[in-house]
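Weekly sync, protein design subgroup
Attendees: M.S., D.O., the rotation student, P.L. (late)

Item 1: inverse folding check
M.S. brought a backbone from last month's batch and wanted to see whether the design step gives back something sensible before we order anything. D.O. pointed out we never logged the input encoding, so this time it goes straight into the notes. Structure tokens as presented (640 positions):
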């Protein structure tokens, strides 16, 4: 198979030792559709003799069945593994391949060229050190070339190989290469790339892949393989400030306590002074423990366990940094976000934000603008769609230790997780902390929620009425409040229509505005619960995520979801405000139940149906629930 096959047979230990000591380069291939990315990787593996015989036999057979090169080998089939890719002749998913040469180990990510798969390209670029940007010599710099270059710069790739492919189709013209290089360098001058190397190639013919091509005698630069084998790797990470995100507190017995993780950047030695963040506790390194024994020094990329000379409190999610150059700590940031989900990103919607070692609830508080990746223009927006990139403000529920992404890719990046589906919906890069957040602190108050509730002889809570327009939410909430008021209870009703006359009068009925509507109401309801009140809220609140957000704002037992489950045909027949008639006529847009969705609760605390029961009977059910669960007790203390 490869250059190492004889050593494998003669001395496997020596072979494994040699592999262990090699450096590792991660790189991606990217560019527009049909520029030859997969063919290039296949040719790279083939000419380096890095393909097993059975793989070669399968490749030859597949090339005859579904290849695009007639009777010749179609090298793209080595990495285009999905059936859809082979049928269409394109790359859809990110295909990763590992290979090695005498000098280095490699992991290459073949990323898709189609615009709709931009998120896949971003995934491949997130861990790469080098990007091979392919350009069809006949077509020059295209829109997708610009898009992928911008994403590479966004994700911190500093070295670009401008691989001008299909030179055989332009008679190996030096002028073609020079014109493309001049145009590209002018376009990319503000992207912060440390190096751009242009190489004329023919992936199909093998020109300048492994050996210098006789077809380009005017080219005196490196071949592609020569560049990949010699480009510096890891120097910047090792020279950076020390960062160890703690993944695990290692306590195998009472006599050992260590802190395990993979070094994100920098170097550490026994005796070095460290600071733990966000707590800011300090100590010195006692030892660096690994499976193979203690180390005198550890560098970026190594998985280690640190023991310290002091007993200080450190948990998973903390970051151990050098004492003199610690990372920052904050809970509010400006960040760039690449959105990767079919469902749009809406400011105010709650998500989970996962850093290298910590997952924290939070939300996007503001979408400042989105970036047109074709023109790099900034445009106003209220939401992000699939594959769009935005500049956002983010607020987390707790502080995290971080570095700006431009300084450290490991401690400056995060992924965004949907709280309902638990799927990854976005990736983000922190620009900086919002300094104002560090100057705002909670003011201690002597009169608290418990005291206010005891004075009112009740348990505070929010009764969150949700259901379609015309289901009877407001009618039932009004009856419940009248009955509670008659009993001397302290209440307030936040009604959807009433709130839109004041607090939320600036909001419309788009999905983004609906999210912000509920976020504001949730914060107001929280304040009223803190005042010891029983609060009724009557809102359609169509999205599960926002109802969950309000639930999470409250303490245990303070959020009571009341689902007024009335069929839409019954609601439309009632149509007390004439809204269904207008929606059907097209006079109202984004009307829930017609052209805007309603996500019904799956496990509401109280479930009533006004098609089966009168509003008074539904109110009876709710009052009974409050009585049975101690919300109306004369000696209520505000706790369940």
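Designed sequence read out in the meeting:
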């Amino acid at each position: 198979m490869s250059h190492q096959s004889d050593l494998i047979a003669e001395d496997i230990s020596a072979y494994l030792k040699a592999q262990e000591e090699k450096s590792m380069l991660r790189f991606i291939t990217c560019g527009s559709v049909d520029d030859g990315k997969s063919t290039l990787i296949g040719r790279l593996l083939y000419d380096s003799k890095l393909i097993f015989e059975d793989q070669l036999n399968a490749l030859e057979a597949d090339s005859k069945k579904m290849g695009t090169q007639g009777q010749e080998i179609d090298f793209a089939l080595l990495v285009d593994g999905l059936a859809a890719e082979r049928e269409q002749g394109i790359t859809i998913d990110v295909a990763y391949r590992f290979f090695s040469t005498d000098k280095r180990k490699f992991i290459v990510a073949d990323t898709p060229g189609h615009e709709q798969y931009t998120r896949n390209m971003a995934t491949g670029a997130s861990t790469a050190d080098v990007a091979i940007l392919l350009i069809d010599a006949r077509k020059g710099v295209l829109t997708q070339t610009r898009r992928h270059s911008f994403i590479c710069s966004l994700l911190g790739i500093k070295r670009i190989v401008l691989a001008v492919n299909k030179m055989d189709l332009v008679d190996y013209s030096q002028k073609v290469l020079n014109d493309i290089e001049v145009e590209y360098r002018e376009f990319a001058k503000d992207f912060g790339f440390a190096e751009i190397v242009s190489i004329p190639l023919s992936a199909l013919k093998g020109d300048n892949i492994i050996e210098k091509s006789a077809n380009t005698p005017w080219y005196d630069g490196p071949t592609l393989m020569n560049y990949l084998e010699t480009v510096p790797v890891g120097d910047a990470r090792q020279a950076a400030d020390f960062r160890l995100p703690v993944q695990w507190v290692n306590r195998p017995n009472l006599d050992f306590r260590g802190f395990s993780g993979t070094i994100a950047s920098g170097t550490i030695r026994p005796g070095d002074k460290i600071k733990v963040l966000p707590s800011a506790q300090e100590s010195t390194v006692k030892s660096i423990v690994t499976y193979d024994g203690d180390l005198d020094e550890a560098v970026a990329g190594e998985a280690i366990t640190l023991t310290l000379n002091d007993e200080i409190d450190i948990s998973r999610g903390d970051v151990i940094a050098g004492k003199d150059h610690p990372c920052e700590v904050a809970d509010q940031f400006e960040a760039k976000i690449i959105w990767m989900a079919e469902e749009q990103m809406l400011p105010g919607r709650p998500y989970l934000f996962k850093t290298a070692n910590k997952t924290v609830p939070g939300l996007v508080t503001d979408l400042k603008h989105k970036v047109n990746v074709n023109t790099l223009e900034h445009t106003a927006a209220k939401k992000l769609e699939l594959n769009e990139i935005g500049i956002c403000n983010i607020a987390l529920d707790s502080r995290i230790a971080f570095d700006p992404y431009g300084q450290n890719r490991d401690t400056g990046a995060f992924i965004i997780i949907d709280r309902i589906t638990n799927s990854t919906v976005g990736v983000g890069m922190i620009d900086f902390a919002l300094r104002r957040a560090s100057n705002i602190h909670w003011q201690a108050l002597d009169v608290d929620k418990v005291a206010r509730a005891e004075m009112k002889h009740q348990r505070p809570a929010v009764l969150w009425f949700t259901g379609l327009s015309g289901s009877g939410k407001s009618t039932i909430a009004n009856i419940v409040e009248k009955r509670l008021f008659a009993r001397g209870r302290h209440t307030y009703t936040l009604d959807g229509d009433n709130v839109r006359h004041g607090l939320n009068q600036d909001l419309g009925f788009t999905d983004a505005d609906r999210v912000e509507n509920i976020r504001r109401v949730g914060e107001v309801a929280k304040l009223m619960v803190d005042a010891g009140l029983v609060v009724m809220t009557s809102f359609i609140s169509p999205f599960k995520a926002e109802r969950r957000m309000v639930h999470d704002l409250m303490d245990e037992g303070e959020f009571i979801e009341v689902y007024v489950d009335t069929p839409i045909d019954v609601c439309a027949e009632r149509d007390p405000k004439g809204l269904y008639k207008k929606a059907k006529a097209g006079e109202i847009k984004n009307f829930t139940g017609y052209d805007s969705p309603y996500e019904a609760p799956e496990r509401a605390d109280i479930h009533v149906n006004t098609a089966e029961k009168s509003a008074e009977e539904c109110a009876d059910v709710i009052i009974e629930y409050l009585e049975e669960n101690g919300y109306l007790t004369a000696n209520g203390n505000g706790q369940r």
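Discussion: DSSP finds 18 helices and 27 strands in the chain. The longest helix spans residues 511-530.
Action: P.L. to compare against the previous round before Friday.
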